[in-house]
UniProtKB/TrEMBL annotation:
InterPro entries: DUF2227_metal-bd
UniProt-recorded name of the protein: Sll0924 protein
UniProt keywords, alphabetically: Membrane, Transmembrane, Transmembrane helix
Region (Disordered): 163-184
Domain of life: Bacteria
Transmembrane domains' residue ranges: 12-41, 92-113
Organism placement in taxonomy: Bacteria, Bacillati, Cyanobacteriota, Cyanophyceae, Synechococcales
Length: 184
């Protein structure tokens, strides 16, 4: 399993390819930028290793306490943190619940403003807002998931490679010992 700095290099190194693929697929500079930001954010701050005391966890600075319950309840490298789709969805729901709690007061004020039927706040109607921004939201989610999967795939590949090379290392070390015994 790669160290945090290796995961960072993978994220930063893969970002140009992610941007190229996104631009070719969408033809939109705006969606390409959103994808790159989401991919980078996921790889550097919002990835699967928030379940341990990792680089990603430390980068949250004084807000890292938000992730303590997550670290307590989510086992490291479980499907809940490193799994395809489920890890990203669970982290989004977890962070979303904190944001919902933090914005309860603001939400109350906005609802009151909407009830007063003030102009220029049509975006407060969630369905309309979701319809207007569905492609942006989908792009952000795909970017977050792609960043998380770059992390998880490198973990899985590193573990697989380690297991694959372990028997060969034992073979080489035992052959070296038997040759040295013959010489003495």
């Amino acid at each position: 399993m790669p160290a945090g700095k290796i995961h960072d290099r993978i994220t930063l190194g893969a970002t140009p390819a992610v941007m190229a693929i996104t631009f070719i697929g969408t033809g939109s500079a705006r969606l390409t930028l959103l994808m790159a930001i989401a991919f980078g954010f996921s790889g550097l701050m919002f990835g699967p290793d928030l379940d341990i005391h990792s680089c990603q966890y430390k980068r949250w600075g004084w807000l890292r306490w938000v992730w303590l319950p997550y670290r307590h309840f989510i086992p490291h490298r479980s499907p809940l943190s490193h799994g395809f789709l489920i890890g990203t969805i669970l982290r989004l729901l977890y962070l979303g619940s904190w944001l919902l709690l933090a914005s309860a007061g603001i939400g109350t004020v906005l609802i009151l403003l909407q009830k007063l039927n003030l102009q220029g706040i049509n975006w407060l109607i969630p369905r309309q807002w979701l319809e207007q921004h569905r492609w942006e939201l989908l792009t952000i989610f795909v970017g977050l998931e792609a960043g998380a999967m770059a992390h998880s795939v490198s973990d899985w590949g590193g573990s697989w490679l380690k297991k694959k090379l372990k028997p060969q290392q034992k073979k080489h070390s035992s052959q070296g010992k038997s040759k040295s015994r013959r010489r003495s």
